[in-house]
Amino acid sequence: PVSLADLASLEFSSLLPPHGVYRARILSVRPWSPHTRLGQIGLGGATSGEAGDAVVVELKGLWADKAMRRFRKGDVAILLTKGADVIEAKGKKRAGAAEKEQAVRLRYSRGLTGWIRRMDGSEEVLRYEVATSNPAPTVRAKRLHPPEAMDVDSPLPLSTSKSSPALVAHPTKVSPPNEGSRSKKRRRREEQLGWGFETADKMTYTTLDKLGDIVEKTDRTKLQTLRVNIVGVIVDAGEVKAPRVAGRDWYRSFLITDPTRLDSSIEVQWYAKGEGGLPEPHVGEVFVARQLAVHDIAPATKTSTRCWRIRLGEEELKYAARVARFFAARAKASTPSAAEGAPMVPPGAAILPPSLAASVTEHLKKRTSAAGSSREFLRIEQIEEGKFCDLLGMVTKLHSDTALTSLSPHQAASLYITDYTPHPLLHDYPSPSSVGLPSRLTLQVSLFGSQAAPLAALINPRTGEATRGALVFLRNVRIKANESGELEGTMVEERKFAGRTDVEVVDLRRKAHEERWGERARQVQRRHREYWAARSLARH
């Protein structure tokens, strides 16, 4: 542990302890700037009212854009000193306490590791790394100097012996990938050792290729209690899924493989009572798990209230390292080198065996297209009558004669949204407009029953009006034409899924929302600013 007082007393270019960690409360946040690629947070006493020296932490680089969105004023940050540099403060130093504040700035340029403790008691892990490529060092070939052609200025001594026969340069033998003597020796060793193992205390780790046989040989009445231990490599990290019905579990699925199953992957499904109970997998990491339930050859963890971790023994660590080396060798052999002018491979992508890439891509297509359906994530300008789609837009008006949380399946609230893309078949509202925007920019969506319940959070209790400009995501909207031939949207409460909602209020401060809708939301916000800026100029 490193105290704030120790950090505040550091001089410019001082060295930080390589394995240090410090804790402080976030006093201020300066957002990341795309011009300087720099963001700042001011840190002070770790608890409310605690005195402490102020320290300024800077995050620099493209990675810092996403990292800065995680910091909020009032939370407690616990950060590792690894990768931090002490840099000189800008401006003139002042006397007294202010001199300490200005004398210390810590800058992270190569990533950041730590976690955040929110004011509500929850914790979030911070891990950002800058991907770097380490090309193999090139060895400069020695230049041959024939004695009869050597210049007097040559750094090599002149030969005093008789002329020797000319040296013949033999071509270097280069083996194809995975065909060299070391690769063959490694494969022979792996064949002898085999995959899967049993620990000294009789705990068996099963390879993924045997799961199908285990399921077939297990009696159906005992399948519910079947548990397996596995070791694999993550090839797709998946995404967090919020419960669509109140009281249900949060969910995340990700794909793994191992050396025995290179042509296809297996899905791991993880359930938790809250978002904090879900793991944060990364492509290329080794996944070791015990006591996983097996269902249709898809291992799934038990429901948990927190993201638990296990303590691995020496045998398990050695086996996990062996699996990692296997995939690292395959990735190295299948990745073109930069010297050949090949494009840079994204971090973690090289871990995919070539035979598995198509399988993962097909799985992702099914998962991102609403479980294999033809529903698309559209802009309002792209909607068509008779089709179902997903939409993201800004609220311009919300109307309901009944409380949004009390609507029956036959009652509807009228939601008006826009993403500032026009459609010729929308209603042409006059200016000024009762729905906030004139012309054909606003889509009316009727939300029946429980579909409207999430929007209750947007209602101002004092005025009874909805917050205009709030972002909402609508899943599975049916587009239809009204009696005038104008397009509208409808979302009904299905009887077999009573209480389920397909409406979410988007909050980009939440990591899951930022990762899922961040890019599309910022496009809507940009068009919003451009539209009102043009309207303002037109008035003048």
UniProtKB/TrEMBL annotation:
Residue ranges of the region described as Disordered: 137-193
InterPro entries xrefs: NA-bd_OB-fold (IPR012340), POT1PC (IPR032042)
Entry GO MF terms: single-stranded telomeric DNA binding
GO cellular component, as recorded: chromosome, telomeric region; nucleus
Coiled-coil portions: none
Family assignment from sequence similarity: Belongs to the telombin family.
Location relative to the cell: Chromosome, Telomere; Nucleus
Taxon lineage: Eukaryota, Fungi, Dikarya, Basidiomycota, Pucciniomycotina
Keywords per UniProt: Chromosome, DNA-binding, Nucleus, Telomere
Compositionally skewed regions (Low complexity) per UniProt: 154-167
GN (gene name): FGENESH: predicted gene_15.59
Protein species of origin: Rhodotorula toruloides (Yeast)
Name of this chain's protein: FGENESH: predicted gene_15.59 protein
Ranges of residues in domain Protection of telomeres protein 1 ssDNA-binding: 380-533
Gene3D superfamilies the UniProt entry points to: Nucleic acid-binding proteins
